[in-house]
Structure formats: structure tokens, C-alpha cells
Amino acid sequence: MPENRIGAWIARVGLPRLIIGVFLIALVAAGIALNLPMDQIVGSMLTRFGMNLLLVLALIPTIQSGSGPNFGLPFGIICGLITATLAIELDLRNFTALAFAVGLAIPMGAFAGWLYGLLLNRVKGQEMTVGTYMGFSIVSLMSIFWLVAPYHSPEMIWPYGGSGLRVTIVLKDRMDQILDKLLAFDIGGIAIPTGLLLFAILCCVGLWLFMRTKTGIAMTIVGSNPRFAEATGLNVNKYRVYGSMISCAMAAVGIIIYSQSFGFLQLYQAPLYMALYMVSAILIGGASLQRATITHAIIGTFLFNGLLVAALPVANEVVPGDISEVVRVIISNGIILYALSRKEEGGYAK
Amino acid sequence: MKGFLRRNIVPIVFLTLCAIGFYYAKMSAAFFVHDLISRLVRNSFIVISLIIPVLAGMGLNFGIVLGAMAGQFGAIFTVFWEIEGFWGFMLSAAISVPLSVLFGWWTGALFNRTKGKEMITGLILSFFANGVYLLICLVLVGWIIPVSEDNAYLLLPGGAGLVNTIDLGIWQYAIDKFFYFKIGIITIPVLPLALTGLLCLWIWHLFRTKLGQDIRAVGQNRHIAEVAGIGVDRVRIISVIFSTVLAAWGQLLFLQNMGSLQTYGSHVQVGTFAVAALLVGGATVNRATVWQALLGILLFHALFIVSPNAGKNLMGSAQIGEFFRVFVAYGIIGVALVLHAWQRKKQ
Hints:
The complex is a heterodimer. By secondary structure, chain A is mainly α.
């Protein structure tokens, strides 16, 4: 029967993916109808996709190892911000700055993730709530750090004295878009941020390979069935900590990639809600609180960010006032609520 | 003695912190007490509104933000209709009731679908509701929802969306100054204190009725309550509705004291600060009393009063004090949640 087939098809594609996908297509169609500069819009869609992908991918290790989507992403993000500011403080430029920041961010993020993972093992079943508030706490604690930290670089402190770092630090002449501009070219007016996309693909391949190593498979088993994993002699807690370490290290690198593409480092309260947006992206891609794949992350990042990019110019034509932030808040939190209220069997991440 | 210390470790730590802060803030005791009383009465309803869902086993209800929004809608209506003074306030309180009952009902129904994950659901729901609130107040008002010429001054220059700050001068202090007296510079607002007292009595009474006993039974063990013939889902929804309505009134009491509504900001942190205050009083995720709520407001807000000055005098920056108190709010919630999860795992 056709209705059943449609129902099955919707179930397979997933309702959120379908709604957001249709919405995105409608927006693009409206954009073409309204004669908006589509080449620019598509170009920034690609950039936003590359910017955010690594941060979204960072959720996969924790989801797969059974601790749910990592709402503690700020732990990693903060590490990335510290190393990026250090790179500027040491007056590094271009690829040296990027390599230094990324190279230092990985061990720092992994260390933060190790501590966070130990905490998560003590609060099984409440990871999301605890993670959210621990993330909020660390962001506000670090706000004090940004105020009192002994940085001297004139590009980062306030020009007329006053204590602490600026709220946003301009990356011009430091590492502003160096990945985006690497091998960049135009197709029909659409600027392709080749380096950024290549790096994103590299991360996907790396994670894909890792999830197929012995450790990666063990992590997935621990996440999908902890009792069975225990029975086969796997140390559940150890693999959950691994998941958290990898996740935070990826987030630390992710924020550096994000910032270099954005052109600014955002300190203080900026990372507060970042985890929420990344979680909603992967959920839109079709992940659940217990299972996520790289495909989910790719589709979700593209749909969510594409929607936000396309919504702004189209909405400006139709609606008075600024609606893009409103759309972002409603969609991202709506999708998390939807995921929370779905009845799912197995796993105990809450 | 040791048991007393362990049970009350959180309030004791905060008392110490406040004492140190007070010492370094170098502010006058009279001003401190004056400020503290006014903060007590403007936060009492919101913090006490958290108690019922805690006892119903749903944890800390971050969904009270929806109640605060209902209260703000009530306030916005009276500003549009220019209904002043005591009755203006009462009307906004009345308008907020059907709205908050509806919001509470939705919240409760959602919580029933996400049993065991109520806190994260409430938190995300509050963010989601804030998005819808923005959609209504920032985009739809003036564009789809018509606003008369007389009230055009309440719209942003573009002609759509409410202004960022709405002056509530028409009923500022409607309750606080209804009847009050002064001791030195310390103002004693009698009516809000009396209302807080009444609310405490009502909570005390509620838990001596059949419904209150049902709430407690559901909170202790859902399955046993179900077997005993209690409509668990219904009791849970009622608890959330109570909480949401009280939060709406609480937000209005807060606003009549402040005298202005930050259209896009007044409600955002309500949940976090109310929850933090309750926890500072020594409450936990599954146990809370009126006394803990009141003590928590006093201690938490004492820290609020002293921290900017203490931050300035100790570290040379008032902003450090600001960030510190935000950190304390988030941190105390984080720690309480960790302890709760820890205990539950041990059982």
C-alpha cells in the first residue's frame, strides 16, 4: 500500500532530517525567486559546513561509548581557545600559529577530557544534565581567567588599559582563514574553501578509521551494550573515558578551525551554548542519543548550517526584524527536545 | 555535631563565603539588610515554586522559565491597556494564571514522556520556549499581531518587535509599598512578607491534604504509587502546573519591585538563579523544604550583594565579582547534580 511505503520511507529518512531538508530546499527556492546572490549563499554554506563539522564530529566518540552527546564540549573548546591565544601571545603567524595551536590543543583537550570522563563515570545516567552544568561552570570560571590572565600582546588586551583580554580577538594577519584560502578556487562565482573542506574530509576519514580499530569497536560495544561488554571482559569505564578524551581533543582542535575560518576568537561567554548547537546538528542528521555515525554528522552539519545561512537573507526580504537567531534557537532546542522525548530501547545515557 | 555539619555543609560554606565577602566589601550593614530584605521578597515565590516538583520526584524544575514568561505576558498586557496601580498588578497576575496553567500542563505532559530526564528536558525546554517567546515578542508583535497607534512607542524603530526595556512605572511597588514602614533606612514591606508567609503556610497545608500525600508518594516511588492506585501522570502534571503558576506570580512580584521589564532578558536566568538559591539553602534534587528555600535566598543573594564590591576591593575589578557569582550559580547546580547522580548510583 502506498501510505505504508510513504510511512516507511519517512521512518527511514527520519522526521527531523525530512522537515529541515524540505525547509532548506524551500529557502533556497525562495532565495532564487527573490533574486538573492545565490553564489555567495552557497559559498558561505560550504564554509559554515567546514567550520562546524569537526565540532559536530567530536560528539560521536561520547555517543558511541554510551555517555550520550557530549554537553561538556566547552571543556575541549576552552583548551583550544587557550592554545590559540598562546599562539598570538608568542607572536606566531600563519601555519606556524595554526600548527602550534592545534598541536598543543590535542594533548590539552585530551587531558581535560580525561578529567571530565572520570566525572562522567561517576554520574552514569545523568551525563547530559551534569555535562551541561559543568560546561556552563567552566565557561564562567574561564571568564575570570580571561580577565586576570597575564597576557601582554597588544592585539589581545584592551587598547586603553583595563584588565583582561578583549571579548573578541581579531585574527587578521595571524591565522585568519588560512585553511579556507589554501588552494581556494571559484566555480561559477561560488568560492570553494578547499583547504577547509579537505581538512574536514581528513577528520572524517581519521575518525572513520579509528572507529574501526580494535579500540574503536570496543568503544561502540561498550556504548551499545555495557552489560555484554563487561561480560566479554571489556573495561566499560576505561572506554568511556577514551570516548570523552577523544571528544574533548577534537573539540579543542575544532574551535581553532572554527575561529580561523570565522576570523575571530570569541572568549568569555561565547562558548556557553556552543555544545547545544553542535548536539542539535548531529540530531538533525539522524543521530539518536545512543547512536551516531559520521554520515549523521555530515548530513546534520550541512542541513543545520545551510538552513541558518539561507534563512538570514531570505528572512530579511520577507520579515521585518532579525529572525535568524530566533530560528536557530527554536530549531536547535526543538530538535533536542524531540530526541529526548523519543522512546528508545537500550543504552542508559540520559 | 558531626551529623549536623555534614547535613548542612552547603549553607555553612556559603555563610562563610558571605561573611568573608561582607568583610571585604566594606558596605554598611543597614544598606546590606535593606537590600537583602528586598531581594528576599522579590525572589521568594520563584524559589518556593521549585519545591513541589522536587517532592514529586521530578528534580529541579528548570521549566519555571515558562511561568516567568506567562507573568511577563500579563505585565505587557497591562502596560498596553495602561491599567495602573494595585489593580493593574492584580490584573496582570490574573492574566498570567490561564497562561501559566497551560504552559505548566504542556511542560508536565512533556516531562511524562521523558521520565528520569526531567531536568535536562526542562532546561532545553526553557531555551526552546525562549525562542518561541522571541518569535512572538521580537518578530510577530507589530507585524502579524496588530498594535494600536497609541502604543506604537512600545515597538522598535522598524515597526516590529517590542522595545528592549518596558517601563513598569504604572504599577511599580504596587505590592511592596502597599503598606510598609521603615526602621532607619531599612524598609519593611509588609504585604510581600505576608504573602510569602501565606505561601509557606499553603505549602505546609498542601502536604497535609490527600493531593500532597499523593505527590509525596509519587516522589518516593512512582511504581509503588501506581500500584497503590494513584494517577501518577496526573499528579506529576498538577505539580508542574502549581510550580509554573507560582513562578508566574513570582516573576510579577520581581518585576513590580524592579519597575522595568527587560523584554528579552528578565526571564532568561530565572531558572538558574532560583535553582541555585534553593540548593544553597541545603536542598537536594529530591528533598527540599520551605526553610531551605528561604535560607537559600538569603545566603545566595547576600553573596550577590557583596560580590561586586568584594571583587573590586580584593582583585581590583567589579567584573570578577560578577563572573564569580555566575560561576557559583552554575557550579553549585553542577555539584548538586553530581552528588545526586553519585548517591543514586550507590543505592
